[in-house]
Amino acid sequence: MATRLSRLLAVLLFAFAMSAAPPAHATTLTVSITCSGMSPYPGYPGFSAYSCTAHPSGGTGSYTTYTWTVSSGWYSSSTYVGAQTENFGCKHNTVRFQDVMVTDSGGATATAHSSIYCTP
After folding, report:
1. Are 58 and 32 a contacting pair, CB within 8 Å?
2. Across all residues in the chain, what is the average pLDDT?
3. Please, is 90 exposed, middle or buried when counting C-beta atoms within 10 Å of its C-beta (0-12, 13-18, 19+)?
């Protein structure tokens, strides 16, 4: 009888320990953008080239998609799926706006916005 009671107590203690363990939670997915490298755009007078990099952190698993939207005051915006770092062109003396939406392997998304003044 004592052996059965010992086994039952061991099973109950194990079950309690398993139920008391806190669940694993992923951290919130966030992203920021840095842009740099303003230089003349070869073959296009009046334009410059620059690059932007998305810096995701947190989330679940890997970062699966980088969706960029780029716009300015002189033409309509364009949206496409790209890489973590993208190269862009801009017309001198205009402001360019970059948005990136990052998706992780768990399906969570985060967005960031950046602007840069295009210099010769």
Report:
1. no
2. 84
3. buried
Q: How far is the C-alpha of 105 from the C-alpha of 63, rounded, in Å? A: 6
Please state the pTM of the whole predicted model: 0.75
**pLDDT value for 26:** 65
Please give the structure tokens belonging to residue 89: 């062109």
Q: What is the mean pLDDT of residues 69-85?
A: 88
Q: Is 26 helix (H, G, I), strand (E, B) or coil?
A: coil
**3-class SS string, the chain:** CHHHHHHHHHHHHHHHHHHHCCCCCCEEEEEEEEEEEEEECCCCCCEEEEEEEEEEEEECCCEEEEEEEEEECCEEEEEEEECCEEEEEEECCCEEEEEEEEEECCCCEEEEEEEEECCC
> In angstroms, how far is CA 33 from the centroid of its own chain?
9
User: Which residues partner with 52 through β-bridges?
Assistant: 35, 86
- Residue 109 has what pLDDT? 97
